[in-house]
Write a structure and sequence with these properties.
mainly beta; single chain; five-stranded antiparallel sheet
Amino acid sequence: MGLRFLEDKLTVGGEVQYNGKPKGNAVATDYTLVNAFASYQATDNLKVDFRADNLFDVKYANPLNGSTTVAVYEPGITLKLAATMRFGG
């Protein structure tokens, strides 16, 4: 869910992502992640994006990235910053 501010130049929001344990995987468990994001359109040609994933530093194993016998844990809090610039119209 997101909200827009400053004449729609700034977007901020967050999401809650629940992931249930898949059947047949003895290693995986249910987990819930909380993420936040922001985007700012500085000019017609420049946009800046920020994202913070797993804000509560949940220790979890994504069953798609591991095996059914050994847990392969995902990273904790992940911060991402990006800038997109358009050249030449």
